[in-house]
Amino acid sequence: MTTLDIDFVRARFPALSEPSLAGQAFFENAGGSYTCGAVIDRLFRFYHQRKVQPYAAYAASHAAGAEMDEARSRLAALMGVDEDELSFGPSTSANTFVLAQAVRGWLKGRAGAVVVTDQDHEANSGVWRRLAEDGIEIREWKIDPDTGHLDPAGLVPLLADGQVRLVCFPHCSNVVGEINPVAEICATVRAAGAFSCVDGVSYAPHGLPDMGALGADVYLFSAYKTYGPHQGLMLIRRAFAGMLPAQGHFFNADVLFKRLTPAGPDHAQVAACAGMADYIDEVHVHHAAAAVGGGGAGEAHPRLAAAGIAGPVDRNRAVHRLMREHEIRLLRPLLDQLAGRRGIRLLGPRQAELRAPTLAIALDRPAAPVAAALAAQGIMAGAGDFYAVRPLAAMGVDPAQGVLRLSFVHYTSEAEVAQLMLALDAVL
Q1: Contact call for residues 203 and 178 (beta carbons, < 8 A)
Q2: Which tens digit of pLDDT belongs to each residue from 92-108?
Q3: Which part of the chain is the Aminotransferase class V domain (predicted)?
């Protein structure tokens, strides 16, 4: 496949051509990405044509249920899990909370420990730490206080006595930015007889997970940060889910995607999540057709078979590579600029290949006024602790002062990064 066609991609996001946003470059994507047009179209259609209780016999209800099922089946296929191993919930924080209550019931009164890190967003930290209230042992896997690095070697002694049942860690911290070696860590956890729970919220916007390659037992991320509506997605392997007590209605306990979902999902938003799969497929088809000399889109193009990328997992992998290559290319000059500036501390690695394009910068003053000054330069950025109080404190950064966070995804253009760099020169 070719390099990312940025014009094609940007045309799929209505916000990028919205007149009220003209001249403003969006660099707080880690807080929530723009929504792709395919999702918006599906949400609009659902509310206009199908906003009824789904799964009944009448036509509107049947169509509503079918579109909800389509979202689950197509996204599950892209990520390499069975359809019922994908659960939708109101948010990743809510999904993690419910999962923690299930683990509480599973481990209460039994020998067993849970490993957490101090690199995580609080959603994948606090709920696990509170299991100590029921006598469940919590062990902390600590980051390097200078770099924020989560060393896989540091996990090994925590697993040595065979008592650990679950290891919870992030694919990527929302302030450190370093991409953790998930497959390596999950293999270590599995060899120790434990299960793995990966918070993918900060990484999934840069490429949806390939669960077969990662080997995680649970992977959680947010649709509203991956170009979709405000839903949380939980991928949970059948073997692990079956060991946990059900948290939903008793009559749904034998349905895996309802087992850990105590409340009914938002029907319209679940249906709209199929637009995320539309987008991944659309990007793939466009680039695969270009790579084999085709013109136009559509999977029926006669030369697409020659690309050798037909299955959903392969489509997801190919689009993931396109996204990451584009992000790395844009990230390098920004990292070089920050490396040459005194009086700031960039958290995490300085090599673009090792991190997501989520840059948290500790300053010698509160971050909020700096973000406000950037806004006057047409840069939409964030400031604060971003619910990452523990990693900031572990690295000696005052959470009350906060950090300036600059984050982008694959639809960000070179021109926007150039605009950001000029604004940083003016403001810092």
Answers
A1: no
A2: 999 999 999 999 999 99
A3: 26-238, 323-420
Per the structure, the count of domains in the chain is 2
345-377 burial code (b ≥16 CB/10 A, e <16): ebbbbeebeebbbbbbbbbeeebeebbeebeeb
Instruction: Tell me the three state secondary structure of residue 38.
Output: helix
- The answer to whether 76 and 212 are in contact (CB under 8 A) is no
Q: What is the pLDDT of residues 176-228, one digit of tens each?
A: 999 999 999 999 999 999 999 999 999 999 999 999 999 999 999 999 999 99
Q: Is the pLDDT of residue 301 over 50?
A: no
User: DSSP letter at 89?
Assistant: E
Cα gap 360→154, rounded to integer Å:
24
pLDDT digits (tens, 9 = 90+) for 364-375: 999 999 999 999
For residue 305, name the pLDDT band (cuts at 50, 70, 90): very low
Which structural domain, as residue segments, surrounds residue 405? 6-35+315-427
Of 272, 301, 302, 274, nearest in space to 286 by CA: 301
Counting residues of the chain whose pLDDT is more than 90, the rounded percentage is 92
Find out whether 302 and 185 touch, Cβ atoms under 8 Å: no
In whole angstroms, what is the distance from residue 80 CA to residue 68 CA?
18
pLDDT, residue 265, reads 85
The kind and range of the H/E element at 107 are helix 92-107
Residues near 392 by Cβ (< 8 Å), separated by ≥ 6? 175, 385, 398, 399, 403
Q: Using the predicted structure, report yes or no on whether residue 302 has a pLDDT greater than 50.
A: no
* Conformation bin of residue 55: beta by default, left when phi > 0, alpha when psi is -120 to 50: left
Residues 258 and 371 in one domain: no
**Same domain (yes/no): 181, 236:** yes
Q: Which of 128, 162, 125, 123 is nearest to 143 (CA)?
A: 125
Sign of CA pseudo-dihedral 409, 208, 214, 164? positive
CATH code for the domain of 94: 3.40.640.10
Continuous segment of H or E residues that includes residue 419? helix 414-427
Residue 299 lies in a domain: no
Out of 237, 272, 307, pick the residue that ends a domain.
Answer: 272
Mapping DSSP onto H, E and C, the string for 258-302 reads HHCCCCCCCHHHHHHCHHHHHHHHHHHHHHHHHHCCCCCCCCCCC
pTM for the predicted model, two decimal places: 0.95
Indicate whether 286 belongs to any domain: no
What distance in Å separates the CA atoms of residue 6 and residue 410, rounded to the nearest whole number? 8
